[in-house]
Write a structure and sequence with these properties.
Number of helices: 17
Largest sheet: 6 strands, antiparallel
Bound molecules: adenosine monophosphate, magnesium ion
Strand content: 5-15%
Length: 480
């Protein structure tokens, strides 16, 4: 097990290499020019036993810009496939990330370390293998923010900036980021084995995932069915969290779906500003396939793709039964999370209707989806101005509010304060720190990161206010 130490003491293994050799290729990261440390997550470091005091900016820059390799690291890029916007792409893969290796963290959990933005790999297709500073800042902030909100996600250890020029809509600087997850295996890895007609490799992949990530499934009568059932359930739980928080992923292709049910691959994501179920955060998603309200059904569609890939290992009828777990698990989890946000303890037959009516009021008034919960908390304490400002004009608000007040019991505001963040990563906040970082000033980035680590604490007004008109409903492109 990893001891509490510096980068030199980290000892990596390469467990992914137990998988069939067709599924990966060795790659060396290509160094970035004049690397420098942009951001470092002490919380993520603690998970892998890396002592922040022993990890100097200089060392981090060397190890994570591709100049040096950690002990034991034998980097590789893996191949996968995926359904992108509904159509099948037979070959994708780690096009701009390499797996450095894995290690056991201080709590016994194993973590893979991936270096993103480290140059071309055999799966880069037409890409340059690089990542723009703005895109890794967005991923870094959002993964650390979701972790603090108790949403399963990959983690981010650090960002390294550089003077390597990359060509997007304009010339930008390339950066790298260390991403951590117990596994980065995607639905798309299974699809790759299935559509290339390699049932033996598919079985080895499934056995690997069960052995390392779903060991309790191994003694079930059909371990593959047990694993699939749990993937479906974890995915449904994840989606309930996204929806309750107003998080939009933006690119829910099957290659971006984690076999562990964690949030993976942060592209043009966004949190809802105004409550708009049709909100599309990805400018390239013209038809709204991945609009906020579509996310749960798309996740289920993606689970169907995974079921198809497993059809040689599990009977179709059993896969269907497992898939049918999605809706009830999602529904129960979502209702529970919304009840927490609304401070509703216990259970009554009216809870679903109260939640639904509340959302209709928000939609009518285009109310800020995050701050409205905080305003409700204040209203329960008798301070009505904020909620009146947000919802007072909605037809039916007075009726709804009186039914809601009658429904509450116990100490509703305590429950609400534990579940309603005072700060979320609004796109305009991310954009502001990115602009400063692109000018070489990382202090705002550190300050925003610090706020996002404690989302339920009181914060500066600049973080807790609703999005100003100019920053609302930004829709981002996939370019990153
Ligand atoms: P994404 O939309 O970020 O999930 O990426 C889809 C696929 O394109 C993945 O296989 C990525 O590895 C690959 N990709 C994205 N950007 C680049 C890039 N700049 N260079 C190489 N491959 C990339
Ligand atoms: Mg991806």
């Amino acid at each position: 097990m990893t001891v509490w130490g510096g980068l030199d003491q980290l000892q990596l293994e390469n467990r992914f290499r137990q998988l069939p050799a067709d599924l990966y290729q060795s790659v060396r990261p290509q160094p970035l020019k004049n690397p420098h440390l942009v951001a470092f997550s002490t919380e993520a470091a603690a998970l892998i036993g890396l002592d922040p005091c022993q990890a100097s900016a200089q060392q981090l820059s060397e190890y994570f810009s591709g100049q040096r390799l950690l002990n034991g690291s034998d980097p590789l890029a893996s191949v996968y496939a995926g359904h992108q916007f509904g159509g099948y792409t037979p070959q994708l893969g780690d096009g701009r990330a390499v797996l450095l290796g894995d290690l056991v963290g201080r709590d016994g959990q194993r973590w893979e370390l991936q270096l993103k933005g480290s140059g071309k790999t055999p799966y880069s297709r037409h890409g340059d293998g690089r990542a723009a500073l703005r895109s890794v800042i967005r991923e870094y902030l959002c993964s650390e923010a979701l972790a603090a909100l108790d949403v399963p996600t990959t983690r981010a250890l650090c960002i390294i900036g550089s003077e390597t020029q990359i060509y997007r809509e304009s010339i930008e600087f390339g950066a790298s980021m260390v991403r951590m997850s117990p596994s980065h295996i995607r639905f798309g890895h299974f699809e790759y084995c299935y559509y290339t007609r390699r049932p033996d490799q598919l079985k080895q992949l499934a056995d690997f995932v069960i052995e390392h990530h779903y060991p309790h499934c191994a003694d079930q009568s059909n371990p593959y069915l047990a694993m699939y059932t749990e993937v479906v359930e974890r995915t449904a739980q994840l989606l309930a969290r996204w929806q309750a928080l107003g998080f939009c992923h933006g690119v829910m292709n099957t290659d971006n779906m984690s076999i562990l049910g964690v949030t993976l691959d942060y592209g043009p994501f966004g949190f809802l500003d105004e409550y708009q179920p049709d909100y599309i955060c990805n400018r390239s998603d013209e038809r709204g396939r991945y609009a906020y309200k579509q996310q749960p059904s798309i996740a289920m569609w993606n689970c169907v793709c995974l079921a198809q890939s497993l059809s040689g290992l599990v009977k179709q009828a059993d896969l269907e039964i497992a898939l049918n777990r999605f809706q009830p698990v999602y529904g129960i989890a979502y209702t529970e999370l919304m009840k927490q946000r609304l401070g509703m303890e216990g259970k009554t037959g009216q809870d679903g209707v109260l939640i639904e009516t509340f959302l209709q009021l928000l939609e009518q008034q285009k109310a800020d989806y995050n701050n409205v919960f905080v305003a409700l908390e204040q209203a329960i304490d008798g301070v009505m101005a904020p909620i009146n400002q947000l919802l007072g004009g909605a037809i039916g608000f007075a009726d709804w509010f009186s039914q809601y007040r009658q429904r509450l019991r116990g100490n509703a505001t305590t429950l609400m304060a534990q579940h309603n963040p005072r700060v979320i990563l609004r796109n305009y906040l991310a954009q502001q720190v990115i602009e400063r970082a692109e000018q070489g000033d990382f202090s705002d980035l550190a300050q925003l990161h610090a706020a996002l680590k404690t989302p339920f604490a009181a914060h500066l007004d600049i973080y807790s206010q609703a999005t100003p008109e100019w920053g609302k409903n930004v829709s981002l492109s996939c370019s990153s």
